[in-house]
Write a structure and sequence with these properties.
The complex is a heterodimer of chains A (656) and B (264).
Chain A: E1 5-9, E2 19-25, E3 30-35, E4 40-44, E5 50-55, E6 63-69, E7 73-78, E8 82-87, E9 92-98, E10 104-109, E11 115-120, E12 125-130, E13 135-141, E14 157-159, E15 166-173, E16 178-183, E17 187-192, E18 197-203, E19 209-214, E20 220-225, E21 229-237, E22 245-254, E23 260-265, E24 269-274, E25 279-283, E26 298-300, E27 308-311, E28 316-320, E29 324-329, E30 350-356, E31 365-368, E32 374-378, E33 383-391, E34 394-400, E35 410-415, E36 421-426, E37 431-437, E38 440-447, E39 457-462, E40 468-473, E41 478-482, E42 487-492, E43 499-504, E44 510-515, E45 520-524, E46 529-530, H1 532-540, H2 544-547, E47 555-558, E48 565-569, E49 574-578, H3 601-607, E50 611-614, E51 620-627, E52 630-635, H4 638-642
Parallel strand pairs in A: 1-52
Antiparallel strand pairs in A: 2-3, 3-4, 4-5, 6-7, 7-8, 8-9, 10-11, 11-12, 12-13, 14-15, 15-16, 16-17, 17-18, 19-20, 20-21, 21-22, 23-24, 24-25, 25-26, 27-28, 28-29, 29-30, 31-32, 32-33, 33-34, 35-36, 36-37, 37-38, 39-40, 40-41, 41-42, 43-44, 44-45, 45-46, 47-48, 48-49, 49-50, 51-52
Chain B: H1 10-15, H2 21-32, H3 45-62, H4 73-116, H5 120-128, H6 139-151, H7 159-162, E1 171-173, E2 180-182, H8 184-206, H9 215-225, H10 242-261
Antiparallel strand pairs in B: 1-2
Helix pairs in contact in B: 2-4
Classes of the chains: A mainly beta (656), B mainly alpha (264).
Organism (chain A): Vulpes vulpes (Red fox)
GO molecular function (chain A): RNA binding
InterPro entries (chain A): Quinoprotein_ADH-like_sf, UTP4, WD40/YVTN_repeat-like_dom_sf, WD40_rpt
Amino acid sequence: MGEFKVHRVRFFNYVPSGIRCVAYNNQSNRLAVSRTDGTVEIYNLSANYFQEKFFPGHESRATEALCWAKGQRLFSAGLNGEIIEYDLQALNIKYTMDAFGGPIWSMAVSPHGSQLLVGCEDGSVKLFQITPDKIQFERNFDRQKRSTVQKMLVDRQYMGVSKRKCIIWGVAFLSDGTVISVDSAGKVQFWDSATGTLVKNHLIANADVQSIAVSDQEDSFVVGTAEGTVFHFQLVSVTSNSSEKQWVRTKPFQHHTHDVRAVAHSPTALISGGTDTHLVIRPLMEKVEVKNYDAALRKITFPHRRLISCSKKRQLLLFQFTHHLELWRLGSTVATGKNGDTLPLSKNADHLLHLKTKGPENIICSCISPCGSWIAYSTTSRFFLYRLNYEHDNISLQRVSKMPAFLRSALQILFSEDSAKLFVASNQGSLHIIRLLEGSFKHLHTFQPQSGTVESMCLLAVSPDGNWLAASGTSAGVHVYNIKSLKLHCTVPSYNFPVTALAIAPNTNNLVIAHSDQQVFEYSIPDKQYTEWSRTIQKQGFHYLWLQRDTPITHISFHPKRPMHILLHDAYMFCIIDKSLPLPNDKTLFYNPLPPTNESDVIRRRTAHAFKISKIYKPLLFMDLLDERTLVAVERPLDDIIAQLPPPIKKKKFGT
Amino acid sequence: MVQLRPRASRTPASAMVDEGQPASEEEEGAEHGLLLGQPSSGAAAEPLEEDDDEDGDDGDDELDDEAPEELTFASAQAEAREEERRVRESVRRDKTLLKEKRKRREELFIEQKKRKLLPEDVLEKLTAAGQTDIKKASGKLKEANLKKKSGEDYEKGGDSKNTKEKVQKIQSVGQNKSYLAVRLKDQDLRDSRQQAAKAFIQKSLYGPGTNRTTVNKFLSLENKRLPVKKAAVQFLNNAWGTQRKQNAKRFKRRWMVRKMKTPK
């Protein structure tokens, strides 16, 4: 494999925002997650829990409620008093409707999915009719008249109990007339709506119980507490033969460290998310039919997209945050050592630039050119392009003004290898090619999407010789365009799992595609067919340990001098695939230890296979090959993230 | 010839031509070198007397036989009249200038007032649209709102408002529906309510009465229960005494510089 010097970078201060609301859609098995910075992410639970779409956030949006309506429509309502509908095809906001009632605290959809109810600050509950295009205001209920039949109304109210005001964080209304409320005193209370009396009271925590979600069959529900515990309540019969049932607290789960502010109940799993930014999906063992690896706990912590771009020539890293960008130059060392040594830095890493974005919108994507002279980033309404000049050790920035309006809301930005062209994938499905000149630009061409589809292109890859551009959307196959003739060259057949990473190899022009189910394909662009190696490995199948990895592959790169090597990484490992070595079958030892030279040749030959995996650097956010002998690995230890979260509830443990 | 003393009635007349005259008289006197400075005295008479005296003195000193100069009454009257006329004209000029200035200023004010109000047709249109009275913000504020609205990617038109009966807020649509004028008061109200709601959540989750601890303490709980007790996760407080450390650094630098200088 070769010896590499590895730049181990830990100064990327990435802190994800906490999860505020979670909504599960049964028909498509998708989960919508809304975070405190206003971002809404859509996870496809059947595609290995991959985040396939996201809507960038906005500072003024403080989402308090999220729900799915009939026909895959997603609505959110927040403290700015507006109801927002999201367009899942074009990946933008369809419209916002002001409810004129002040901050909206809760929202619910009627069971047949055609009506929307919002609970507002001024005490009124407003009913909206969902029409094919928009929502229309229908009625306004005053505080007293809430007895009209609404199922599953989640609301917030005050109730004066004991010394401190007890806030009810969630309410669920079952079809048999039971009302379940969870409040800040740590109680789960069952009320009878006909008589208005308390039926049962469960004290389950010392802190607030902040969220509740009921399953569709109404025989189980889940609550989340501020201590990070998630409790599962089930309706079980009193004795094994009787028909009388009662609610019993069955299972506690402690997967979070901070408040669990949102829970959802899918038919087979409990989903919870909170201030500690993890999204935890816990399949329930009794509901899962096949007990295989799919029934294991899934914890999604790290982003499924790349937030870091690298300029190899100047050894620069560009970090993308929600409202600013940071440019760092890597340190250097003159020492040498042997395998496993830590070399001292002769020159420390340099924080060159801190670029803040104007306006309340979040940054969607960013990129730095390979030569390091151009930085581009995009928000929902604007596109920014900057020219960098380096004189000795100083750096100066110049903004290129009057960017065209069609470049805004870009989902992916990529520079060509010679930094002369800029490729932008917009969320309307079109691809723009811009030629970069000294201090200005010229729009070369736009590839429009195929007629009839509004497919947003999420990932881009360009070949190092500048001839080919590959773009993948959310559902159709990967399109390959010829840049010189500005035409569509071919389309890789679509696969039913979304693409997580794309790259084109330097000389052979092989397109390597990684999917969310951990399949890796290699497609030869000049030949317009899959390569031999790809067919072989598809026939044999990947090793079961490879397929059982949790996190998607986010970046693929190549060695300039070794065409048989593919370097890829996910959050917990990085791997060099050597296509010349034999493929492993299920019986081979997959995770090889470091090849020590004193091992006998026989053993080495038996365990040698194509996948060389290293788990030294984890959790990895980014890994790339800078030149032939240097790698850069950007790590983000989980403790560093937790150290910057809001304060958790105090836990008293014996002995401390 | 006998020099007649000018009548006393003349001087009060000249003094009463205008209020501003004394000042102008004095000015003129200063300008033209005439001794007209004293308003109430016999202004026209005195120089003659002085001239006479001077001439008389000179004459007495040098030549006795030279007769004093004769100044006819007519000439003196003519001179006095000239002066009066000049003064009166200057006063008139001043008055007219001031009047013009005042007129111009008033016109300017009227124009500014007119500019503030919208043109007639727009007002008619708005009242015809059946919406309640509008308090128009100035042009700058409108632009600021526009920027805000466009930045949030709104697609509001007039129709979505008209469907709601309960519209109290006023959103008026421009002639070509390319901008949206919003009452600033409403935006402030909305912002304040949003802030109040956020503050409520913050207070109920993290305010007094909640049982919260720092992240450091939370992560160090495990360390405390190990068989071999370890220190807390964040043991050092690097933010302690930053000002003192800065002062010390500065002092050290200055001291070093002083030390370098003194051997020389």
